[in-house]
Here is the input.
Amino acid sequence: MVVAVVRYFLNGWIYSQYLEPTLTFTYLGFDWVRPLPGIGMYVLYVVLGVCALAVVLGLFYRTAMAVFFLCFTYAHLIDKTLYLNHYYLFSLIAFLMIFVPANRGFSLDARRKGWTDQTVHPAAIWVLRFQVGVVYFFAGVAKFGSDWLLRGEPLRTWLIHADLPPVFSTNEAALAMSWAGALFDLTVPFFLLWRRTRSYAFVAVVLFHAATAFLFPIGLFPWVMIALVPIFFEPEWPRRVFRRDAVPVEKRPAKPLAPGVRAALVVFVAFQLLWPLRHVAYAGNDLWREDAFRFSWKVMLVEKAGYARFRVVDPETDHTWEVDPGTRLTRVQEHFMAYQPDMILQFAHHLRDEWRTKGVPNPEVYAHVRVSLNGRPSTIFVDPDVDLAKQRRGYAAKPWVLPLSNASID
Here is the structure.
């Protein structure tokens, strides 16, 4: 996270992601989350960097971890455009680490307070193992679909456009890599849990994520996953590696967890197991409709492109205005909005509210949207005859999103 904060400053992302946009696509229930005014977002990222460094050093650890979690989560709730699976993972890990006493040893806190007992409750380690395992497992489950296993998409599309030897751009290579990726995600957490296969699984994790970092521009995610995986090893492994003369840790029975802690763990675990499965409550292809796509560990499953134009109509005068989203959104916002239904609806509501301020009391908003999914030809995505100004935001299915046609499936 220290590296991530530095990258935000060096690449100018604080300005382009928070200050340049004139409107943001907020999450349902978090419409109050807005960018801080003035230099506020720069200050926020300075605080993030200081807190991340304090966690590295184990200095005022719990306070630093709590502030980091709040600031990081706040920053990435501002706009759906910023959503990435690994940002969600970072927030979850940061939340868990507020309660995990990771500063019991090898920390400035331990030196300041003279701590000698470096043991922690096994639940503190297992909850982190569980969280990392959940990411892999559900990413593997999500890959068991026809696009990934039968068409080799979207890997085939990405490999064709990558600067690689021709052998990688073949259908056979895409299918082989797709199957290998699905099996890796689905099985690697179990191999990491089994002591006999743990070392081999760790080597596989390093090679797998190093390869994905080389092939695809997906930022820090591969390196973070490599850094997280050693949590599956025995807790005393750092002492064995860095202090070979260290006295072995005495294995003592763990004290029972307080009832409140047990209840909190049950709720957290249940949520992490059930929330990624909510797509079963919706009809249709979730890669197309995205009713339950975010926060479900659907990693590297889609390559989508969209084209969207909007039409605002005054029903009293039949006067019509054609709207190009590019006049109101940044290029990145326009790109993501053009194929995500909830963002399309939010933009339509923005146009409705804008025209109301211009003196049109009941504007109607219609959208012409075409979307391409995983190498298919683009097809009409939104019912062009539905007035989006009257559609409500929410978790209910969106009947105005047209189904993926049989022609495009073939």
User: Anything to note?
Assistant: The beta strands are 304-314, 319-323, 364-373, 379-380. The two ends are 43 Å apart (CA to CA). The CA atoms of residues 311 and 322 lie 5 Å apart. Residues 1-115 form one domain.
